[in-house]
Amino acid sequence: MSFTISHALHSIQYNQTLLKTSILTNSQMYSEHLFTIPDMQVTMKPTTATAAETQLLWMAESGFTQSWVAIMTKMEDTLLSHEELLLILMILVKERKKYASSTANSITWNQTHEEGSVWTYSEFTPERTSDKLFGPVIAMGHEWIDIESVNYFVWVKSGDQQIDLAAPPTAHGVSLMLQ
After folding, report:
1. How far apart are CA 131 and CA 24, in angstroms?
2. Residue 17 has pLDDT above 60, yes or no
3. Burial letters for 114-148: b for 16+ Cβ neighbours within 10 Å, e otherwise?
Protein backbone atom coordinates (compact mmCIF):
# COMPACT_ATOMS: atom_id res chain seq x y z
CA MET A 1 0.00 0.00 0.00
CA SER A 2 2.80 2.44 0.88
CA PHE A 3 4.50 1.81 -2.48
CA THR A 4 1.30 2.63 -4.39
CA ILE A 5 0.67 5.82 -2.41
CA SER A 6 4.31 6.89 -2.72
CA HIS A 7 4.20 6.36 -6.48
CA ALA A 8 0.95 8.35 -6.74
CA LEU A 9 2.34 11.25 -4.66
CA HIS A 10 5.51 11.45 -6.73
CA SER A 11 3.53 11.44 -9.98
CA ILE A 12 1.74 14.67 -8.98
CA GLN A 13 3.30 17.73 -10.57
CA TYR A 14 4.50 20.12 -7.85
CA ASN A 15 7.75 21.81 -6.86
CA GLN A 16 9.30 19.10 -4.69
CA THR A 17 11.98 21.49 -3.43
CA LEU A 18 9.27 23.43 -1.55
CA LEU A 19 7.29 20.52 -0.13
CA LYS A 20 8.42 17.19 1.28
CA THR A 21 5.90 14.36 1.40
CA SER A 22 6.69 11.16 3.25
CA ILE A 23 5.07 7.78 3.70
CA LEU A 24 5.94 6.36 7.11
CA THR A 25 5.15 2.78 8.10
CA ASN A 26 5.04 1.65 11.72
CA SER A 27 6.56 4.94 12.82
CA GLN A 28 6.05 6.38 16.30
CA MET A 29 3.57 9.19 16.68
CA TYR A 30 3.60 11.11 19.91
CA SER A 31 2.45 14.37 21.39
CA GLU A 32 1.48 15.70 24.79
CA HIS A 33 -1.62 13.46 24.82
CA LEU A 34 -0.66 10.53 22.60
CA PHE A 35 1.85 7.80 21.93
CA THR A 36 0.93 5.32 19.22
CA ILE A 37 2.39 3.49 16.24
CA PRO A 38 -0.04 3.57 13.30
CA ASP A 39 0.49 1.16 10.41
CA MET A 40 0.97 4.00 7.94
CA GLN A 41 1.12 7.81 7.89
CA VAL A 42 1.34 10.21 4.96
CA THR A 43 2.95 13.48 6.03
CA MET A 44 3.74 16.80 4.38
CA LYS A 45 6.29 19.42 5.42
CA PRO A 46 7.12 22.73 3.74
CA THR A 47 10.88 23.04 3.08
CA THR A 48 10.96 26.82 3.13
CA ALA A 49 13.43 29.04 4.99
CA THR A 50 10.90 29.49 7.80
CA ALA A 51 10.60 26.42 10.04
CA ALA A 52 7.26 24.67 9.70
CA GLU A 53 5.61 21.76 11.45
CA THR A 54 5.00 18.48 9.68
CA GLN A 55 1.33 17.99 8.85
CA LEU A 56 -0.25 14.55 9.08
CA LEU A 57 -2.43 14.09 5.98
CA TRP A 58 -3.51 10.45 6.04
CA MET A 59 -3.45 7.65 8.56
CA ALA A 60 -4.01 3.94 7.97
CA GLU A 61 -4.62 1.45 10.73
CA SER A 62 -5.31 -2.25 10.38
CA GLY A 63 -6.32 -4.75 12.98
CA PHE A 64 -6.10 -8.50 13.19
CA THR A 65 -6.50 -9.02 16.90
CA GLN A 66 -7.62 -5.52 17.91
CA SER A 67 -11.30 -4.90 18.44
CA TRP A 68 -13.32 -2.19 16.69
CA VAL A 69 -13.37 -0.25 19.98
CA ALA A 70 -9.58 -0.45 20.43
CA ILE A 71 -8.86 0.78 16.90
CA MET A 72 -11.48 3.54 17.10
CA THR A 73 -10.01 4.71 20.42
CA LYS A 74 -6.54 4.86 18.86
CA MET A 75 -7.85 6.89 15.91
CA GLU A 76 -9.88 9.23 18.14
CA ASP A 77 -6.78 9.87 20.27
CA THR A 78 -4.80 10.62 17.11
CA LEU A 79 -7.45 13.12 15.98
CA LEU A 80 -7.12 14.99 19.28
CA SER A 81 -3.49 15.75 18.45
CA HIS A 82 -3.81 15.97 14.65
CA GLU A 83 -6.97 17.85 13.68
CA GLU A 84 -5.42 18.45 10.25
CA LEU A 85 -5.92 14.78 9.25
CA LEU A 86 -7.57 14.64 5.83
CA LEU A 87 -8.16 10.89 5.54
CA ILE A 88 -8.32 7.88 7.83
CA LEU A 89 -8.31 4.33 6.46
CA MET A 90 -9.20 1.50 8.82
CA ILE A 91 -8.82 -2.12 7.74
CA LEU A 92 -10.41 -4.76 9.96
CA VAL A 93 -9.33 -8.33 9.33
CA LYS A 94 -11.64 -10.83 10.98
CA GLU A 95 -10.20 -14.24 11.65
CA ARG A 96 -12.41 -17.32 11.61
CA LYS A 97 -10.70 -18.45 14.81
CA LYS A 98 -8.23 -16.69 17.08
CA TYR A 99 -4.54 -17.19 16.27
CA ALA A 100 -2.68 -19.72 18.38
CA SER A 101 1.03 -20.44 18.10
CA SER A 102 2.25 -23.98 17.72
CA THR A 103 2.34 -26.08 20.86
CA ALA A 104 5.65 -26.34 22.70
CA ASN A 105 7.71 -29.35 21.59
CA SER A 106 5.39 -30.11 18.66
CA ILE A 107 6.94 -30.88 15.26
CA THR A 108 6.14 -27.33 14.09
CA TRP A 109 7.59 -25.81 17.27
CA ASN A 110 10.79 -27.78 16.90
CA GLN A 111 11.12 -26.93 13.17
CA THR A 112 10.75 -23.21 13.78
CA HIS A 113 13.21 -23.20 16.68
CA GLU A 114 16.00 -25.10 14.95
CA GLU A 115 19.26 -23.25 14.39
CA GLY A 116 19.11 -21.56 10.96
CA SER A 117 15.49 -22.57 10.37
CA VAL A 118 14.51 -19.38 8.54
CA TRP A 119 12.28 -20.37 5.65
CA THR A 120 11.87 -18.41 2.44
CA TYR A 121 8.41 -17.22 1.48
CA SER A 122 8.08 -19.89 -1.22
CA GLU A 123 9.16 -22.63 1.21
CA PHE A 124 6.69 -21.52 3.86
CA THR A 125 3.57 -20.69 1.82
CA PRO A 126 1.18 -23.56 1.27
CA GLU A 127 0.40 -24.61 -2.27
CA ARG A 128 -2.65 -22.89 -3.74
CA THR A 129 -4.67 -24.11 -6.68
CA SER A 130 -7.39 -22.30 -8.63
CA ASP A 131 -10.08 -24.13 -6.65
CA LYS A 132 -8.34 -23.42 -3.33
CA LEU A 133 -7.23 -19.76 -3.43
CA PHE A 134 -8.61 -18.95 0.00
CA GLY A 135 -8.95 -20.75 3.25
CA PRO A 136 -6.72 -21.53 6.17
CA VAL A 137 -2.98 -21.07 5.75
CA ILE A 138 -1.51 -24.38 6.86
CA ALA A 139 2.26 -24.83 6.72
CA MET A 140 4.58 -27.14 8.63
CA GLY A 141 1.52 -28.96 9.97
CA HIS A 142 0.16 -25.84 11.72
CA GLU A 143 -2.78 -23.58 10.88
CA TRP A 144 -1.31 -20.07 11.00
CA ILE A 145 -4.33 -18.02 9.99
CA ASP A 146 -7.81 -18.41 8.56
CA ILE A 147 -9.35 -15.14 7.33
CA GLU A 148 -13.11 -14.78 7.44
CA SER A 149 -13.40 -11.24 6.06
CA VAL A 150 -11.53 -8.00 5.34
CA ASN A 151 -13.48 -4.77 5.83
CA TYR A 152 -12.31 -1.31 4.76
CA PHE A 153 -13.59 1.93 6.28
CA VAL A 154 -12.59 5.40 5.02
CA TRP A 155 -13.31 8.76 6.61
CA VAL A 156 -12.49 11.93 4.65
CA LYS A 157 -12.34 15.44 6.08
CA SER A 158 -15.03 17.73 4.71
CA GLY A 159 -14.29 21.46 4.58
CA ASP A 160 -13.00 22.93 7.83
CA GLN A 161 -14.67 20.28 10.00
CA GLN A 162 -12.50 17.69 11.75
CA ILE A 163 -13.14 14.07 10.76
CA ASP A 164 -16.01 12.70 12.84
CA LEU A 165 -15.46 9.01 13.55
CA ALA A 166 -18.92 8.79 15.16
CA ALA A 167 -20.44 9.57 11.75
CA PRO A 168 -20.81 6.82 9.16
CA PRO A 169 -17.62 6.36 7.12
CA THR A 170 -17.32 8.15 3.77
CA ALA A 171 -16.75 4.75 2.16
CA HIS A 172 -16.97 1.16 3.33
CA GLY A 173 -16.28 -2.06 1.55
CA VAL A 174 -15.64 -5.75 2.04
CA SER A 175 -12.93 -7.21 -0.15
CA LEU A 176 -13.13 -10.74 1.14
CA MET A 177 -15.94 -12.60 2.81
CA LEU A 178 -15.71 -16.35 3.07
CA GLN A 179 -18.31 -18.76 4.33
Report:
1. 37
2. yes
3. eeeeeeeeeeeeeeeeeeeeeeeeeebebbbeebe
